[in-house]
Design goal:
The protein is α+β, with helices and mostly antiparallel strands. It has a three-stranded antiparallel sheet. A hairpin with a 5-residue loop joins strand 2 and strand 3. Helix 1 packs parallel to helix 2. The mean pLDDT is 90.
């Protein structure tokens, strides 16, 4: 199974009341956050297992300033599941 990280991000933001725009709308810049994520680490745990770490950044579209950053780890059966789990954990920390 393959999971698109963008789909996970969009789903969680939509669930929390955000509207996801297909592209930057100049009229809405003052109310728009740009969201980016990336794999930021990998750590070995328990014999041959490891966890994937991701970092998510929220940046103001109007000013270009960093609004928030969240980092989390995921450990599951596949790399896709680990990334999905890490994204979910990172956003849970931001929204709670």
């Amino acid at each position: 199974m393959s999971v698109n990280p963008r789909d996970v991000l969009v789903g969680i933001f939509a669930k929390n009341g955000f509207i996801v725009l297909p592209r930057l709308d100049e009229r809405l810049k003052s109310k728009t956050l740009m969201v980016s994520y990336g794999k930021s680490g990998r750590r070995h745990v328990l014999l041959a297992a490891y966890v994937k770490e991701i970092t998510i950044q929220l940046v103001s579209a109007e000013t270009g300033e960093l609004v928030a950053t969240a980092t989390a780890e995921g450990r599951a059966g596949t790399e896709a599941e680990e990334i999905e789990q890490a994204i979910t954990r990172a956003l849970d920390a931001l929204f709670k």
